[in-house]
Design goal:
Oligomer: homodimer
CATH architecture of the largest domain in chain A: 3-Layer(aba) Sandwich
CATH class of the largest domain in chain A: Alpha Beta
CATH topology of the largest domain in chain A: Rossmann fold
Order of helices and strands of chain A: HHHHEHEHEHEEHEHEHEHEEHEE
Chain lengths: ~350, ~350
DNA sequence: CTGAAAGCGCTAACAC
DNA sequence: GTGTTAGCGCTTTCAG
């Protein structure tokens, strides 16, 4: 039962009620190195329960020099890719009694660095950086040094993306996924591909494209006859597809660097009277849950994003010295948007 | 330039470097009531800059008795409805230099209450509770008392849902939206409707259903000839639609209590060889951005969810005594999934 | 094993 | 205006 007084119940209140010292109460409630003997321990716990005591985490953080909070930095929480990762992180955090502080950087790498500095100031236990890394040495160096500061101040860092930085990483095997997708599409009979990519410095997109390219080569059939670059969003997909259609090059299959772009591409096709699947095959990457009911159902390279989030959180908590890389393979899922070509 | 020592830079370090007292440094950096005169102020600011000082927010929180953090409690961050709201909240929080602590309750109201208690313990500045309220007096009473405790401890609370509790509320006009949708569909020529609803105690769904019902009555035409109840999710929509189809009742338009259910319903239709729009019209609620590219495009009642999130955050920050209600109207958007019936 | 007391970094009276 | 100092709630030596 929680007491209805205005002033919050403090540990001192609990100690008084249990007739022990502050120190003992602290030890009983948060099992420190020193153990409290049974009779007392129960008394304290009961008093805490009775008074509805809730430890003040801020105060704990100041005293311990470390908060029981982890930061989650992602490009855009409204993008289902990140929302799914966030769900996984949140689930796992809940299991460990950790708070998750969310910051959506709106795809600004400057803001990402600034937030990381902020989280260091919070003495966050750790931070998860989700989202494609950039192929930009200057930016990566600054991020690396901020990460180093963060770590030196005692925090842990996990990336969900490419392992281009010295830190624990959950690495999506984008290249291998692209390669497998290319082979699957060639097997289905496609030969003339267009690729809708994000700007080259966005590694996630570039890896997927390179893998796809390589896949075509090893398959010994099929060629990339067109490509377009636009933002890594639905609107980018629409724009890139429009450009491809205007180009007039004959293609029989369009591959977008992610599902969200693929969806934009399908809309662009329809806007020009081109029917997805029937007139032109389409494929994407990620297998976003919210988009699994599209019609025609989208062929894609599935990455288990919720699990990726959980995994990132688990790595963060699992204290290890050396930077590790956990690889997450993608799985090609062939659906209606790429019917077998006879 | 940030110094690369292990120990974080404290305010005392800044004060020493600037040759002033701790208090003056504090005042200069966080402009308190007392002002610091110009020559000194600059010295302090420069010293802080030079040393790469970052205020320890935990310590500030302990000293001030209030954290610069707000909590966001929602049912499921992977659901695009909540992800969009979260995006709005996050944007607005960023503008005010506030951290957002996210908790995804997985639709457990128990967990919602528990998290609220936790946030009180954190001395969060405020909390936003997003997600349908329940028609359950017992639960609402417990939530109300927890809210009261939270408020008494100095925090603010804003709800995004129904104004069934004494607190600031951003209220989606679900009933009015349902009503308008019914009239629009009747105008298009539909007469035999099926409604896919969430369990009755979920107010968002129930309000939409009741409004829809009322709309049919005032339109003087059309009738609800079937309905099914399932979870307020994609799978729920699939299940409910399957039930309707099995029922054999003749319907010409299916209305789901939200877009996510509508998507599940469309899949269920296709699984039974029924073509959405052509064979059976479909409509939903929310106008989820990620689902705007469906084909056939989904007729829906649009609620500006990102704006709703921003608004909720704004209300939270805007100190006012009495509980206010900000009404957000829905807008019927007719698309391909409900073609005019001749 | 328990208690007393010294911090953790910062704010806010209270003096000068 | 600026400095001194007493907390904020908790953890953690250091004695006993």
């Amino acid at each position: 039962m929680s007491v209805s007084t205005g002033r919050p119940v403090t540990l001192q209140d609990v100690a008084d009620a249990a007739g022990v010292s502050l120190a003992t109460a602290s030890r009983a409630i948060n099992g420190s190195a020193r153990r409290v003997k049974e009779p007392l321990r129960q008394q304290v716990l009961e008093a805490a329960e009775r008074l509805g005591y809730q430890p003040n985490l801020q105060a704990q953080a100041v005293a311990r020099g470390r908060a029981s909070m982890i930061g989650l930095l992602l490009h855009d929480i409204a993008d289902p890719y990140f929302a799914e990762i966030a769900a996984g992180v949140s689930q796992e955090a809940e299991r460990h009694g950790l708070l998750v502080t969310l910051a959506s950087t709106q795809r600004s790498y400057e803001r990402e660095i600034a937030h990381l500095a902020g989280l260091r100031a919070q003495r966050a236990q750790g931070v998860i950086l989700a989202g494609s890394r950039l192929d930009d040495a200057g930016l990566n160096a600054r991020l690396a040094s901020e990460i180093e500061l963060f770590r030196r101040s005692g925090g842990r860092v996990t990336l969900v993306s490419q392992d281009v930085l010295e830190a624990d990483t959950v690495r999506l095997e984008n290249r291998e996924g692209g390669l497998a997708l290319a082979r699957a599409l060639v097997d289905l009979g496609y030969r003339r591909f267009a690729f809708l990519a994000a700007p080259q410095e966005l590694l996630t997109s570039t890896e997927r494209l390179e893998g796809f390219h390589e896949g075509l080569e090893t398959a010994g059939a099929g060629a990339l006859v067109a490509s377009a670059v636009a933002e890594f969003t639905r609107d980018g997909g629409f724009e890139a597809m429009t450009e491809i259609l205007a180009g007039g090059e004959h293609v029989d299959c369009v591959v977008a660097a992610n599902d969200v772009m693929a969806v934009g591409a399908m809309s662009a096709m329809r806007a020009r009277g081109v029917r997805p699947a029937e007139d032109l095959a389409v494929a994407g990457f990620d297998d976003i849950a919210t988009l699994r009911d599209l019609s025609p159902a989208l062929t894609t390279v599935r990455f288990p994003l919720v699990e990726v989030g959980r995994r990132a959180m688990a790595m963060l908590l699992d204290e290890v010295e050396t930077a590790r890389v956990h690889r997450v393979p993608g799985e090609v899922v062939v659906r209606e948007s790429t019917p077998p070509k006879d």
